[in-house]
Amino acid sequence: MSPAKVQDNHRRGYIVPVGGAEDKDSDPVILRRFVEISGDEHARIAVIPTASRLDDTGARYERIFRELGAADALALDYKRREDADNPKWLEYLHGATGVFLTGGNQLRISTILGGTDVARAIRSVNATGVSVGGTSAGAAILSEHMIAFGKSGATPRAGMVSLAPGFGLTNRIVIDQHFRQRDRIGRLLAALAYNPFAVGIGLDEDTAAFIDGDDTLEVFGSGAITVVDASKLEHSSMGSAAHGDTICMTGIRLHILNQGGRFNLHTRAATPPLS
């Protein structure tokens, strides 16, 4: 699932994975910033609550985005694959200035919306400048390679993680969420041990990566982002390991970035926050 081609007269919109459990009430830094990059008082945000089984998830985000100053927000409640054919919802999606996918189970998103006009529309509008974000499961689905299942733990092991196709807005990163809270560095390392092409992005809760059209990531929120750069990987034992074996990996670079920190996905250069 490759990213949609950005035409010469356009700039790709922001891609915004959020680590889950973002502050929605007292100081919603992340959601306020999402409204700003989606047009601020002119923002028209399509909320996709497909990952959630809770009936009020979409309505809650509609209210939050409107309270934060968006001109409009509408939940497109895709619950079955046939819902993806709803012409009114598809029209709203194509006219949105921001698209936001809620948390829940990322496989609900991929099995209900994968391969549909909705998934194609999300890639297409992002390529024309529309911001697309998601929290927790909604973050995992954004990249080409999505972590579908995995186990907790700091040590990477063979069979520790299962990957599935995501929406493919970017192929430069593999995303993991609730990162420090659920001790997920082992499974992110295991994902990169398969193929070190992508950059591993481990998102703490209430923390987001705002990735602009130049593929520069900036951190917003109260936690940190763990960036795992395996581009200089010297050795991975994944190819010879039996299921459950620990994985030997050498030559990995790791960065911990908090609010204001940046990482360039092209040059692989990390920049600390300005003092």
UniProtKB/TrEMBL annotation:
Q: What role does it play? A: Exopeptidase that catalyzes the hydrolytic cleavage of multi-L-arginyl-poly-L-aspartic acid (cyanophycin; a water-insoluble reserve polymer) into aspartate-arginine dipeptides.
Write down the top EC class of this protein: hydrolase
Q: Which UniProt keywords apply?
A: Carboxypeptidase, Hydrolase, Protease, Serine protease
Question: InterPro entries annotated for this entry?
Answer: Class_I_gatase-like, Peptidase_S51, Peptidase_S51_cyanophycinase
Q: Name one GO molecular function term.
A: carboxypeptidase activity
* Positions of the catalytic residues: S136 (charge relay system), H178 (charge relay system), E205 (charge relay system)
Write down the EC number: 3.4.15.6
On whether Hydrolase is a keyword of this UniProt record, the answer is yes
Reaction equations catalysed = [L-4-(L-arginin-2-N-yl)aspartate](n) + H2O = [L-4-(L-arginin-2-N-yl)aspartate](n-1) + L-4-(L-arginin-2-N-yl)aspartate
Q: What is this protein called?
A: Cyanophycinase
Return the similarity comment. Answer: Belongs to the peptidase S51 family.
Source organism of this protein record:
Enhygromyxa salina
